[in-house]
Structure formats: C-alpha cells, structure tokens
Backbone:
C-alpha cells in the first residue's frame, strides 16, 4: 500500500546570483506532475503518495544539478501528511 507523505524541500543552486529560474523550474515540475504543494520563503512543502513525491524530488534535483552545483535539503514525513487543501492555501 502506498502511503501519503509530505516533504519539505529547500533547493540551493550554488554560485548563482539569480535563484528564481531554478526554483520556478522546480515548481513547474510539481505543477506538471499534479502534486499539491505550498510555497514558502525558504522551502516548499509537497504532499502526495510516497512514490510520486520521491520521484519528483529526484527529478527536480537532477534538473538543477545538471546545470549547476546543487544542494537540496529534504525532510520527509508520514506523520503529518495533511494536504494544503486541508490547511488552506494550495497550488
């Protein structure tokens, strides 16, 4: 059985003065995959089934890492998988 999880993701394209294109690319990927997410000033929280969330995070890292040196920090949880629809303010 695939469980619902949440993931808090921070993406850091190193050495770049303009981070926006990389962050926007990651958000676009989330949109393409149809995952629920909430943008924050320092991170993005994603909700979905375990397989989809892990796959989109891996692809998001790869898309940035092929262009620039990249750090990604991720916290996964199956203890607080509430979707943004349940707490208000979703994408």
Residues:
């Amino acid at each position: 059985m695939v469980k619902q999880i949440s993931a808090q993701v921070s993406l850091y394209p190193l050495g770049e003065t303009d981070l926006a294109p990389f962050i926007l690319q990651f958000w676009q990927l989330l949109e393409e995959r149809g995952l629920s997410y909430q943008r924050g000033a320092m991170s993005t929280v994603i909700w979905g089934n375990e397989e989809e969330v892990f796959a989109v995070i891996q692809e998001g890292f790869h898309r940035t890492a092929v262009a620039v040196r990249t750090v990604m920090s991720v916290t996964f949880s199956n203890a607080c998988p509430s979707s943004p629809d349940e707490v208000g303010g979703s994408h």
Q: What stands out?
A: The two ends are 26 Å apart (CA to CA). The mean pLDDT is 90. The beta strands are 4-13, 36-39, 44-49, 70-77.
